[in-house]
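Researcher: Batch entry, complex prediction.
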Amino acid sequence: MTDVLHTRVGACWPGTRAVFRGHDLHDDLAGIGWMELYVFGITGRRLAPPQLRVLEGIWTLTSYPDTRLWNNRVAALAANARSASVLGLAAGIAATEAGVFGGGPGLQSIDFFLRAGVLHGQGMSAEAIVERELQTRRILGYGRPLNSTDERLPPLMRLAEREGLSQGLHYRLAFDVEQAMLRRKPFLKMNFAALTSALAADMGFTARQYQLYNILKTLAGMPPCILEAADKPEGSLMPSACDVVIYDGVGPRIWGDRLGNDGAAQG
Amino acid sequence: MNRLQTRIWHEAPEPGDPFAVRVARCHGYDVFGDMLGRCRWVELLFLLLRGEAPSREQAALLEDLAVALANPGPRDPAVHAAMASATGGATAAAALMAALAVGAGRQGGARDVFEAVTGWGQCGFDLPAWQAWARATGEQALSIWPVAEHPAGFDGQAVQTSGIVLKTLAGLCVHVPAERLRWLSAHRVALEAAAGRPLAMTGVAAAALADLGFDAEQGEMLHLLLRLPGAAAHALEQRALGYKRFPFPAVQLDDDPARAVVAS
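Model: Structure tokens for the complex:
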């Protein structure tokens, strides 16, 4: 195992001090807010207060304490099975890096906007960008699995306008892309992933930086689910009786019959 | 859709309690009334994922693969993570979650196996196809996984093929279903030249898993699962030894505002 760890991001000397990206955490960064620290840790940049308020608002607007949601359900099941609550929380965060919601679409969406922003800056219209993109891949951030209308967008738009962040290149492009998408399929309305990733692109996030910011946007919804599930009788969260499960596999068979005379498996 | 659907498992309830299981069948076989006592663990693993019982030869290959993968050793990053979690006194689950998180990756981990099993589907026994596949490393579309820094199944860091990798390859090649493993063994040098890297244990595992008929997702899952025993054992050992005996390196901070160069 290595004798010396080389690093530029920071270190702590217990009993003395701690350094966070080249700044003394308790002196240079005294009083810094948690969101600012978190984003500073990711980007190495100190973002402006309006940007930080929007970033925090993005997290606030989609932290739903609905135990049915898959990531929340993971966390709650842990609590109701009388596991340690933080194990549930950690597994819930991991489950948020999903393909149809959360981390996956967010990453694809900001990747699209970063490329689209370059093309738009070169004079390409949103229509042409969409046409070009759809020739090789899907555009994530438009359409939604459960309902095509996204209730989070109006409050997010109000927040962005209030903080003076509604005129960025990627933010405006998100709406132009929506129109291009709707011309193709009327249900492909913009969703939260598109506008949040567009805002992050305007703030200078890379895709990988956004991946680390974006994944916690549903976090605040999990503790209420965990605590309520812990209060319920153990094993009572979404219980399934045997006959509730639909089995559509093969019928009964005998283990000893599985091998033919020559020892090869049947089937 | 409020009813779970499965082709894997059927549970018949006790007459007096719809939640108490009287008989549980896995792909049709009575697990507790028929298999228990007559079924090896690897046979159940195979059955769960493939839906059919393995032949004796398939079970023997999977068992040997499971032995080879069971403990990557305490220097392995996944095991290191499990030990680091345990030495601080975190839960048993935290140790295994740490091992899974680190062991999921592209460097010696399950994502490498996923990509290598995918390679078998794309390239089969075609050496030029594998050579082209190796050249295309890193061209994947953006995903939550980092971009590959070496061809999957090959070692991103080693400068020569490990003895344990070669012994595993040779040991698994003796099994009847080991068609890909034998081809890998016969073409190893050419493949390593194409990859610019030595063969890794993930490459051997991927060939074995493909020989057993597992697809990339199943192979990824099995690789995660089969490496946990060592992580568990080393985590428990380090917890018992205590954190004062667990390595904690000195640090060299290159942008220290206090300009402390080396401290411990």
